[in-house]
Design brief:
By secondary structure, the protein is an alpha/beta fold. 37% of the residues lie in helices and 21% in strands. The protein has 2 domains: 128 residues, 3-Layer(aba) Sandwich (D-Maltodextrin-Binding Protein, domain 2); 86 residues, 3-Layer(aba) Sandwich (D-Maltodextrin-Binding Protein, domain 2). The protein binds glutamine.
Length: 232
């Protein structure tokens, strides 16, 4: 007899720190847009979740190895990833931006010549930096998480970092990091919830149904406004 979806606990992997989507509050609890969205969808659809903050690249790899049921981690829906994963409907628009130290005079990719840039492994920002590094003549240092990537720029070891626009803007405006945005955001992919290809179709369907319900009843907007303010 098949187990009813509502009796099941789905294991959902996420990033360690990617505010305002997933991060620990003062008491160590994981909060953020992704965390609240996932919880609200589970509640709306009547299933249970266990959140595993593995780090972005580790979460994606765990999903590929089918060690977890899904990933919600500000994960961009890209054509390359669609070979390996099935994505939900998009739930947030993003795009990669270049950030530099607050007092830096680096203002374009041309200014990166002969310099070092911090990137985060397995991300769209990483892929973008790799795609332009030969053209603009810079080197890269790879980090496992966003916090260490930012610190490398603040410490002056790297002159820039490539990060998702909403996350970088939140770190600067919301958390006061001494960085600034140096470029317009590159046309980027939207975020989606992912399952391994042809796996957990019922979970994906429940995510989409729950997301539509939260959009219709105002809860989705409420969660966004809680973290981003009413301006978005
Ligand atoms: N949106 C980016 C990607 O999917 C970064 C995600 C993250 O660092 N959590 O590659």
């Amino acid at each position: 007899e098949a187990q009813a979806a509502e009796d099941k606990t789905f294991v959902i992997a996420t990033d360690t720190t990617f505010a305002p989507f997933e991060f620990q509050d003062a008491s160590g609890e994981y909060v953020g847009i992704d965390m609240e969205l996932m919880k609200a969808i589970a509640e709306d659809q009547g299933f249970k979740i266990e959140i595993k903050p593995l780090g972005f690249n580790a979460a994606v790899q765990a999903l590929e190895a089918k060690q977890v049921d899904g990933v919600i981690a500000g994960m961009s829906i890209t054509d390359a990833r669609k070979q390996t994963f099935d994505f939900s409907d998009p739930y947030f628009e993003s795009g990669v931006v270049m950030a530099v130290a607050a007092d830096s005079n680096i203002a374009s990719y041309e200014d990166l010549k002969g310099k070092n840039v911090a990137v985060k492994t397995g991300t769209e920002g990483y892929t973008f930096a790799e795609s332009i590094k030969a053209k603009y003549g810079f080197t890269t240092t790879v980090f496992e998480d966003s916090a260490n990537m930012y610190q490398d720029v603040i410490a002056g070891n790297s002159v820039a970092a490539f990060e998702d626009y909403p996350v970088m803007a939140y770190a600067i405006e919301g958390q006061g990091l001494p960085l600034k945005l140096a470029t317009e955001k590159e046309a980027g992919s939207s975020y989606g919830f992912a399952v391994a290809k042809n796996t957990n179709p019922e979970l994906l369907a429940m995510f989409n149904a729950g997301l539509a319900n939260l959009k219709a009843n105002g809860k989705y907007q409420e969660i966004q406004e809680k973290y981003l303010g009413t301006s978005t």
